[in-house]
Amino acid sequence: MKKLFTTASLAALIGLGATASFARDLAVVSWGGAYQEAQREAYFDVYAENFGGIKDEAYNGELAKIKAMVETGDVTWDVVQMEAPELENACEEGLIERIDWDRLGGKDQMIPTAVMGDCGIGTIVWSTVLAYDTQRVGAKAPASWADFWDTSTWPGKRALRKSAKFTLEIALLADGVAPEKIYEVLATEEGQDRAFAKLDELKDHIQWWESGAQPPQWLAAGDVVMTSAYNGRISSAADEGQTFKIVWNGQVYTLDGWVIVEGTPNQDAAYDFLSVTTDPMRQATLSATIPYGPTHTMAVDAVPGELQSRLPTAPANLEAGLYQDTNFWIDHIEELTERFNNWASQ
User: Fold this and answer.
1) CB 264 within 8 A of CB 73
2) Are 272 and 54 within 8 A, CB to CB?
3) Is 88 buried (19+), middle (13-18) or exposed (0-12) by CB count in 10 A?
4) What is the pLDDT of residue 23?
5) Is residue 338 a contact partner of residue 319, using CB atoms and an 8 Å limit?
6) Is 245 exposed, middle or buried (0-12, 13-18, 19+ CB in 10 A)?
7) Cα–Cα distance, 28 to 179 (Å, whole number)
8) Nearest-angstrom CA–CA distance, 100 and 94
9) Is 236 strand, coil or helix?
10) Residue 188 has what pLDDT?
11) Per-residue pLDDT tens digits for 139-169
12) DSSP string covering 47-68, please?
């Protein structure tokens, strides 16, 4: 897979990308850990070899820093990876630029959901899954979020992301709500109360994570018996010898997208970078390194067959999962985040 970036695809990228005049090295911001290491191999190093200087940083999804950059005119981040609801909100607030798809070869080459409004380019399909260490759960393994709540069969701490998003869906799945009914229920006051009541049952057993690197670290250290986690982080840890397993039943999957920060002095360089990240062979390389689903239509078939089952987009995994409703979270993110933060702090 490392050799998939061919001379032909490089020529195509250079043809699509602008001839950039760099104000400084391109600053790219993503999620850190094993995922960002995979991005270095698939994207960052290729960009550096063919276009110019690049530095990458990690963050936890906070928009406050981007907002401060744009409002002060001191933009030091150029390209940032965002989750879908935050991306849409940032676009509405004018914090990120509208994408000129003509500079990237057009929208038709991407799966439909990868056109993320006016401002985002979908880059991976990823999911939050239930994960556990097979050496620590005993003879019977958990198979659902309902099992995650079963502290009698599996005593010990559990880890959940410190976020209303994903955590409230997981609580309702654990409480027996069918995936197709989750957002219908969560849109009501009664449904929200139901989700928080379910979380109340487990609150004393929860260890909250904020960085995607924490769940596999905590599993390996024995700090938690099971955890919600990003699927790629668990697969990477398993590839490195950890005895971790993913429960695809109840996965909550969605897309992340690349955005260009409004007012960047490196706009041309940003489009050169995006040309690399939308190349199907580079996307296939990423998926082969860390199993997140690609978004270019040609990249899906380029991922080796033996790796397909490890992707959130594998048919069996999709059938058992919940697609996160971006529009729901755009409408409800502020109120539910405020309620969640107040609840978690008590």
Assistant:
1) no
2) no
3) buried
4) 67
5) no
6) middle
7) 35
8) 15
9) helix
10) 98
11) 899 999 999 999 999 999 999 999 999 999 9
12) HHHHT--EEEEE--S-SHHHHH
pLDDT tens, 221-267? 999 999 999 999 999 999 999 999 999 999 999 999 999 999 999 99
β-strand partners of 296: 110
Opening angle at CA 148, ends 143 and 153, nearest 5: 85
List all residues 6 or more positions away from 129 whose beta carbon is below 8 Å from its beta carbon.
228, 229, 230, 231, 234, 246, 247, 248, 250, 251
**E strand or H helix that includes residue 222:** none
Cα separation, 35 vs 39, in Å, equals: 6
Least Cα distance to 210 among 234, 228, 231 occurs for 228
Count of other CB atoms within 10 angstroms of residue 335: 11
Number of neighbours of residue 237 by Cβ within 10 angstroms: 22
Low-confidence ranges of the chain (pLDDT < 70): 1-23
The token pair at 67 is 């907002």
Q: Which residue has the tokens 């040309």?
A: 275
CA angle 120, 230, 115 (to 5 degrees): 15
Question: Would you say 302 and 112 are in contact if contact means Cβ atoms under 8 Å apart?
Answer: no
Backbone phi, psi, residue 164, to 5°: -60, -45
Q: Output the pTM of the full model.
A: 0.86
Residue 206: is it exposed, middle or buried by C-beta count within 10 angstroms (0-12/13-18/19+)? middle
Six-digit token string for 56:
């990458």
